[in-house]
């Protein structure tokens, strides 16, 4: 996963740029086959978001007597996103009106990004270390920004895996953050790896779609033009900033009350030593707000390792990412999906109380062996399980209620099915449960 990040991170991934297209081409060739959705520059989405023009950078620098002191070639974050062209010799005061620095880190080149989302705004400018700005001692500066704008297409990548059911779990990450690695190129890398692992399974209950988007605008464009696909989406998972040295933060869906919320929280608490759970967009926000927007309202969690001090600076590079942390993050998502994939609703076929100790069943849980199981409330479980085989609870619901290992409960109920004591059904969608 980290290999993909190292290959692509130091590129100008504005919303519509040659570098963005080349990154999609690389992913399509080496990591994951993509279907491409194209949206023409100037297209209005929901009568408000606007697809920007293609932005090309030929050169950009600030110089004193020909010596470049701020140079796009040194790092693409030195130029603000979608900077207008500009060329002149100007005063120090005029220059400082167009140079952005980090408010807390004097040695960091920050990311100035708003014009990605606001093509109706127009500004030229640079980003620089505060220490560079503090060292400026000339009265005049040569400024050269050679950028070009032209109509083109914004590209959204999609990979879809067909499962046994049309109901789809939608995963997404954004590719657009110029010259950065963890935010969110690393999320794209995890998404590619996770989809490849799902592809290798013999069968899948759900269908899966992975979107590689431009933050907010790319998701909005896809949602606005793919209503037939969106109708099948049951849940969303946004992958962001997975590789830095911090705990995994699960931010719940808008309501925080869906089956996805409960499964994701359960798996986090049982498999991640330093996990944290928070409300919807409580610490950081991304495209889950598009997925959950009015008219769609797809329950979407986000999984992240935010915050980290390198965020939105040139220090967000592959050095802060480890393959181990990417793998732990990916494995957590796999476990969440495994529960969603294998869960079922048990429905009893009997009345009264069968003797589970009867040799034809052999399902009795001996109280003398309970302590050795080292699980949750198994005492209550063994006394109450028969009443929960009512078609209203899933195997996961039962495991969660009694704080038991999901695999133990699922396997135990599969033995009930093998003995003819229950039949099983697919879990209902959250919308069906509330109807």
UniProtKB/TrEMBL annotation:
<protein>
    <submittedName>
        <fullName>DUF4910 domain-containing protein</fullName>
    </submittedName>
</protein>
<dbReference type="InterPro" id="IPR012353">
    <property type="entry name" value="UCP015244"/>
</dbReference>
<dbReference type="Pfam" id="PF16254">
    <property type="entry name" value="DUF4910"/>
</dbReference>
<dbReference type="Pfam" id="PF09940">
    <property type="entry name" value="DUF2172"/>
</dbReference>
<feature type="domain" description="DUF2172">
    <location>
        <begin position="54"/>
        <end position="148"/>
    </location>
</feature>
<dbReference type="InterPro" id="IPR032610">
    <property type="entry name" value="DUF2172"/>
</dbReference>
<dbReference type="InterPro" id="IPR032589">
    <property type="entry name" value="DUF4910"/>
</dbReference>
<feature type="domain" description="DUF4910">
    <location>
        <begin position="3"/>
        <end position="343"/>
    </location>
</feature>
């Amino acid at each position: 996963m980290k290999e993909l990040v190292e290959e692509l991170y130091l590129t100008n991934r504005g919303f519509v740029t040659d570098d963005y297209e080349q990154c999609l081409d690389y992913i399509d060739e080496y990591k994951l086959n993509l279907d491409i959705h194209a949206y023409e520059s100037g297209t209005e989405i929901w009568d408000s978001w606007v697809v920007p023009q293609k932005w090309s950078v030929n050169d950009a620098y600030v110089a004193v007597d020909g010596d470049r002191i701020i140079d796009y070639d040194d790092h693409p974050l030195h130029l603000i996103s979608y900077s207008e062209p500009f060329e002149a010799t100007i005063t120090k005061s005029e220059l400082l009106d167009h140079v952005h620095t980090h408010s807390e880190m004097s040695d960091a080149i920050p990311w100035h990004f708003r014009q990605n989302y606001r093509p109706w705004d127009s500004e030229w400018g640079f980003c620089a270390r505060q220490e560079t700005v503090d060292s400026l001692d000339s009265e005049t500066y040569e400024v050269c920004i050679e950028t070009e704008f032209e109509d083109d297409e914004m590209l959204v990548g999609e990979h879809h895996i067909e499962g046994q059911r049309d109901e789809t779990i939608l995963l997404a990450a954004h590719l657009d953050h110029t010259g950065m690695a963890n935010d969110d190129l690393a999320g794209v890398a995890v998404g590619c790896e996770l989809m490849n692992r799902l592809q290798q399974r013999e069968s899948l209950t759900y269908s899966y779609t992975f979107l590689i988007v431009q933050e907010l605008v790319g998701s909005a464009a896809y949602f606005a033009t793919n209503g037939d696909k969106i109708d099948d989406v049951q849940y969303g998972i946004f992958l962001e900033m997975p590789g830095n040295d911090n705990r995994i933060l699960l931010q719940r869906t808008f309501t925080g009350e869906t089956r996805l919320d409960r499964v994701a929280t359960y798996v986090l608490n049982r498999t991640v030593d330093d996990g944290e759970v928070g409300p919807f967009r409580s610490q950081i926000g991304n495209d889950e707000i598009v997925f959950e927007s009015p008219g769609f309202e797809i329950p979407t969690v986000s999984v992240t390792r935010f915050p980290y001090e390198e965020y939105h600076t040139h220090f967000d590079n592959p050095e802060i990412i480890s393959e181990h942390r990417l793998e732990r993050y990916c494995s957590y998502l796999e476990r969440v999906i495994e529960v969603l994939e294998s869960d079922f609703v048990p429905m009893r076929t009997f009345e009264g109380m069968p003797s589970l100790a009867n040799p034809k069943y052999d399902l009795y849980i001996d109280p003398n062996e309970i302590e050795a199981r080292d699980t949750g409330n198994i005492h209550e479980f063994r006394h109450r399980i028969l009443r929960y085989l009512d078609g209203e609870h899933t195997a996961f619901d039962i495991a969660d209620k009694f704080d038991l290992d999901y695999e133990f409960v699922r396997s135990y109920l599969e033995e009930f099915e093998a003995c003819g004591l229950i039949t099983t059904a697919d879990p209902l969608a959250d919308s069906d449960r509330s109807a």
